[in-house]
Amino acid sequence: MKILVIIPCYNEEKNIQTLVEKIKKLDYDYLVINDASTDNSPKLLDKYRLNHLDLINNIGLAGVTQIGFKYAVDHGYGGAIVIDGDGQHPPAYIKTLLDKVAEGYDYVVGSRFVDKPKPFTMRMIGSRILSFMIKIKTGRTVTDPTSGMRAMGGEVLKDFADNMNFVAEPDALCHVLKRKFKYTEVQVDMEDRVAGESYFVNPLRSVKFMVNVIISILFFQW
Amino acid sequence: MSSYQITLFIGTIITILFIVVSVVKTKMNIRYAIIWMLWGIIMLVLSLYPGIIDKLSVVLGIAVPVNTVFLIFIFLLYAISFYLFGKVSDLSNEIKNLTYQVSVLKKNIEDKND
Fold first, then answer.
1. Residues B61-83: pLDDT tens digits?
2. How many domains does chain A have?
3. pLDDT tens digits, residue range A141-193?
4. CA separation (Å) from A149 to A85, A102, A201, B57, B98?
5. Among the partner residues B28, B37, B101, nearest to A215 by beta-carbon distance
6. DSSP letters of A35-79?
């Protein structure tokens, strides 16, 4: 089965070097999608001759991943995996996730908290709230709802490519569970962001994210 | 329950159902439905606890509480239309960008064919 590794990239000029090294170790086809970065990322992507798409307008992470899924479907891939371009997802785990897809799971999430306890930071309290919402809605236990590292088989890939109506990862996960796709999670250890700024430094943005995702899960995922 | 409370309550429930059906059936983008959903929830709370409106009226010095409801509604419509103007202006910029890029690509292809 052909698998595409989708790597969203937005203003990651400081992380590109590590990204290149990661990609070189991959045995899989990959596609870096540059979401109209305003720094030197596009030039660096050209310089290192990475297989990439340059988007003309900034469309946000959800749109970028959907473009990746459409590309994967158009090019005949039977599955896809999303890993962040900021160096948080160690490539060693790509195989772990894909093994699960090969076992017949439709949607596999790399979770930080399968075997390990969840700390009580602000962010993880948010994560707990989202897990709880998904539990009420679907009855399933999800240990890391916001994880961006996920692999999917052909059916979910096609579903996502055709009509993706999500705000972010947690409600996408809720959608997958509602559709009775086979779901599992595997333990991964994520690294701290090497360089660049996270989207969630701004507390107002975090609140907006939480409100959007909770409303989407509670009202719009059936 | 006063009759305006009941009207507001029933109206809100219908609104919320309408929004949910629109999103699920016609695949309206969830991002744009969220603000309406939030507003529906606020209306629901206001219809169940009209005391909030009464208190607010006292604080704002408005004699008839229903005018406070109108004030809030008009402000929301104002805010949403401003937000929409912003979005439309973003979109027209993006379309301009896309038009430019596509026409450059078209020109390149035509030049190659000549």
1. 999 988 988 998 899 899 999 99
2. 1
3. 999 898 889 999 989 999 988 878 888 889 899 999 998 999 999 998 887 76
4. 11, 17, 20, 50, 31
5. B37
6. ---SSSHHHHHHHTT--EEE-SS--HHHHHHHHHHHHHHHTT-SE
Threshold 0.90, pTM exceeds: no
Six token digits for residue B111: 């030049």
Domain CATH number, residue A26: 3.90.550.10
**Pair of tokens at residue A94:** 């790509």
- Answer whether residue A194 shows pLDDT above 60: no
In whole angstroms, what is the distance from residue A203 CA to residue A211 CA? 12
Judged by a CB distance cut-off of 8 A, whether residue B113 touches chain A is no
Distance, in Å, from the CA atom of B12 to the CA atom of B8, rounded to the nearest integer, reads 6
- Among A56, A220, A221, A222, the strongest candidate for a mutation testing the B interface, having the largest count of B CBs within 10 A, is A220
Probe site for chain A from B12, B34, B90, B96 (most A CB atoms < 10 A):
B34
Pairwise CA distance, residues B112 & B95, whole Å: 26
Domain span including residue A44? 3-220
Concatenate the DSSP letters of all residues of A14-30 into one string. TTHHHHHHHHHT--SEE
Helix, strand, coil tally for chain A in percent (to 5): 45, 15, 40
B55: Cβ–Cβ under 8 A, 6 or more apart, which residues?
A: none
Which residues from A are below 8 Å from B28, CB to CB? Answer: 165
Q: Which residues pair with A34 in a beta bridge?
A: A9, A54
DSSP B19-50: HHHHHHHH---HHHHHHHHHHHHHHHHHHH-T
Q: Which residues of A touch B105 (CB under 8 A)?
A: none
Smallest Cβ–Cβ distance between A212 and the set B20, B34, B97 belongs to B34
| ipTM of this complex | 0.76
The pLDDT tens digits for A70-127 are: 999 999 998 999 988 777 788 888 888 888 899 989 999 998 888 888 888 888 888 9
**Which of B21, B30, B42 has the most A C-beta neighbours within 10 Å, making it the best mutation to test the interface with A?**
B30
